[in-house]
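Submission sheet (multi-component)
Chains listed below:
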Amino acid sequence: MTVYRGCDIPPDLLYDVTRDVWIRPMPDGSITLGMTDAAQTRSGKVLHIVFKKPGRHLDAGQSAATIESAKWAGPFPTPVAGTVVETNEATFAADVLIANRDPYGAGWISRLEPDAWPAPEAGLVTGEEAITRYQVRIDELALSCFRCAD
Amino acid sequence: MTDSTPIRLLDLAPVAPIRSQTIYHAVGYALGPDSPDTIMLVSPDAPYVSIGRHQDAAREVDLDYCAAHGYPVIRREVGGGAVYLDGNQLFTQWIFRAEHLPATVEARFDLYIDSLVRTYRALGIAADHRPINDIHVNGRKIGGTGAARMDRAEVVVGSLMFDFDTSTMAQVLRVPSEKFRDKVRQSLADYMTTMRRELGEPPPRADVVATYLATCSEVLGRTIVPGELRADELALAEEFDARFATREWLEEGGGLRRPGVKIHEGVRVGEGAHKAPGGLIRCIATVRDDRLDDVAFSGDFTALPASVPNDLDAALVGCELAEEMLLSRVIDYYERVSPEIPGVGPSDWVAAVLQATTPQVPA
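Outcome: structure written.
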């Protein structure tokens, strides 16, 4: 685990650093998407989330969910084109703060069947490169990450 | 977040209600790599009701009342609650490239609200920032603010409040009872303020705008240059005009429900009910900074003396919103008065209060 200014950056995931989205390739060829630690910190406590339904095709950059936090609303964009195969709606229904507590685990957002994988045009990074890119970004943003404890 | 390029000012003439919402969405979504950051000033030319991104319009707003009075109900992409708006507010909309504003929403509000607070102070109003995103004058709120991401743009919106019609605001909300509406109306009157209320007469718009722009320039450390809407922004605004007017958009809520009515960051009116063995106790409570500011009991219980509900209202006002403190006050009342209320004990009143006041969503 790599933590920089309180922001966890697991090196085994792929990242769209600009969009603050992580991707985990799954054994069945699908990809799981979620908010990074930086993203959940920037949005603040999630109050409500509306998911694009399974079966819906999304272009790269389109919103896979709309998030409303206590003081902000915005999209959760997918870096990669694909079709929604599963959402984490049930987990969020039980605990709307799950992405604020566990952004890389139980707080995942959507699972997509990507149109093409790998997706070099998406500019995803992983490992040391991801950590380096995120450290620069976190410095630029003057960000320190926090998780919900309750 | 530093940037030294000039900020474009769009100081618009009053526009139709729907355009007062769609215009900042259009500028946000049209923001391209070479677009300037924009501060937009605009007022609607007629009253309307704006609802938050994920609110259920039919559940939050009295749609029949709004239709009967000609108030359009318009969903925005910014979160938050339903609000009645008219030409007495000057909307101050910041549409900035995301990297030109602070990274966290709290820090963005710090900057945005600082500009409004300083403007009010320059106009002789003792405004303060009440975090996260309220502006208060001696405990009364003067305008709300909100934030949203629109493609490349971070958008922060709020208003300069020349005046505010609290009575109509209370009327457009869908509430469980007229008694509850009265509490909302009273709380809005008690805990909202405006330039008119603070100064007797609001300053001329031109003076307020000049003060605000000078303040923004100082707070942001950038020049602000009058500009025009681009053709692509206008075209997108027209698209959004059509989309935001559809029933589908109005009904595309997502089911977010906030219990009660938030008057401001520290004041909320809520209603709850508790089924005691002796009958149903309904409670309408106004909470201010975690204390009961006002409470009203009703229900189908039998009580002697008949003044018990009113007596308990009075006994609980000012009480800290903690179960043991509430219970202590009710027990004290029971010991002093020995009321006859079959099947209703002290803990039942407390349960009704807690039903009305317990937050069900994160603050």
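Remark: The mean pLDDT of chain A is 93.
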